[in-house]
Amino acid sequence: MPDITLTYNPTTGDVASAAGFNANLYDPANPPTSFEVINGWIDRTNRASAWKVTWDKIRPGSMADAWSTGTTANLDYFCALFQQDDTGSGQTGAFLPVPGACQSVYVPRAGGNVRFVASVTIANSLEDTTSNGTRFRLYRRPAGSATFTRVPGSQQVVASGLVTSGGTPTRRTYRDRQYTFHYLDIGVSQGEYEYALCIWMSGAYAATSGYTANLYTARVRIRNATANWNG
Amino acid sequence: MPTTGFSTIEPGDALSAGSLVSRMDGLEAAINDLPLDSVEPDSLTRQHLPSNTVGTAKMITLNLNISSEAVYSSQVGAEPYPGWNTVAGWKVVNDVGTATGPNTLTVTGLGVALTTTVGVEVWADTEIVDIEWWNFGGGARAGAVARVHRILGVFALQYSSDGATWYHVPRSERYFRAETANDSGTATGAVAVTVPQQGKRITIASLIRHSDAGGSITVNQVRMVCSCHALGLAGAGLGVQLRLRQANLSAEGIMFGSLT
């Protein structure tokens, strides 16, 4: 509210008050009542409403910003990497962050929105069932609503059953899938936010087998993990 | 060059409390209503800028998980793809696959009045678990039909002010063609078999503008619609079944070009 409201308003004939004039010129204890406002207190309320703000007046990154990352590396996951907490919805603590699919966002002022978009390639040798499958889950810090699970459709099991080669579950390249989803964080407060795409494999078949040959695997490539803020 | 409403005290003018106050009032008014040419390029930061969001942003998610996917069906001659840029005839993506469902992928309460500098940015995505031709009399792929080459799932965005009159966004239409192959990955012969597990994700990003069909309306609702169709499939009781999982849609009004 740096619109100025001067408090000393004598009329002609009044005895001038030095303190009053000084207060109008400089009153750092209460800026909206003095010209002290021009020393860094000017804000959006000082703009005359008759003109529109155009891009050339805006400092880059002040109204919107975006970050994106990705990797072409193959990230291979095995069932044995994960805590086998296959108790329905109770496995949320067993997810691991996917490298290259996490973003940090600085929101410079309250009230804006952040959109997180993840696009990954997934190749899976697990089934697409409740007990055996790969899950993605989005986590957000500070803790908030952006936590939900997604099941990427890339399972390698076809109508004739599990596809194996020499007893080892295999992936089929023609079943590699591009998996994209988004989340809109609405009306966020000012501050730092982290969005982390995490992965978990249920792998009931290999629950206690450790790193053996017959592990079910998932291969993940991060096309991009993008976050943009505007507000 | 910065400008103010300040006028100097000229030689001969009375120097009084009133004349001083009038100059201060001029400065006050100028600082409280800074004109355009008082602002240097690249000088406005987050403190000086109005928000570029308009109305109320919304997001909706249908958690259609494994074994609880929404199933949509379209029988030959009954519910075909309504055609390019047609408003009616679509099914709203919902949690059960009926015409409307109890819970649809629709956001409401946006309150975005479209102008030349205000639009609605929309993102929507869902996953096609499978799409295949269907014998509604005998179950999936029951019986033999001529090979079907083109089994399509089509998705699009629509928007409305009152929830009664809807407008279609033709550029948002996305098509998905089913893979047709057997378990060895080779195309099938006389009998049509589609890969039962497609696992493809459909993503739509679009901007609704005042130049679209609805004109300068206030957009309150946006929804994702779908349709399924098999070109060349003929016969009573035959059609297409489409199974969807986990759908998201978000919409936010934004200003672009210039801020008011």
What are the key terms here?
heterodimer, A: 231 residues, mainly beta, 5-stranded antiparallel beta sheet, 4-stranded antiparallel beta sheet, 1 helix, 12 strands, B: mainly beta, 14 strands, 41% strand
What can you tell me about this protein's structure?
The complex is a heterodimer of chains A (231) and B (260). Chain A has 1 helix and 12 strands; from the N terminus they run H-E-E-E-E-E-E-E-E-E-E-E-E. With 231 residues, chain A is mainly beta. Chain A starts with 17 loop residues before the first helix and ends with a strand. Chain B has one helix at 17-32; strands spanning 53-62, 70-75, 91-92, 106-107, 112-113, 118-135, 139-140, 150-160, 166-177, 200-208, 218-219, 221-231, 238-255, 258-259. In chain B, the strands form 3 sheets. In chain B, strands 1, 2, 6, 7, 10 and 13 form a 6-stranded antiparallel sheet that branches. In chain B, strands 3, 4, 8, 9 and 12 form a 5-stranded antiparallel sheet that branches. The two termini of chain B are 22 Å apart. At the A-B interface, strand 1, strand 5, strand 7 and strand 10 of A face helix 1, strand 1, strand 6, strand 10 and strand 13 of B.
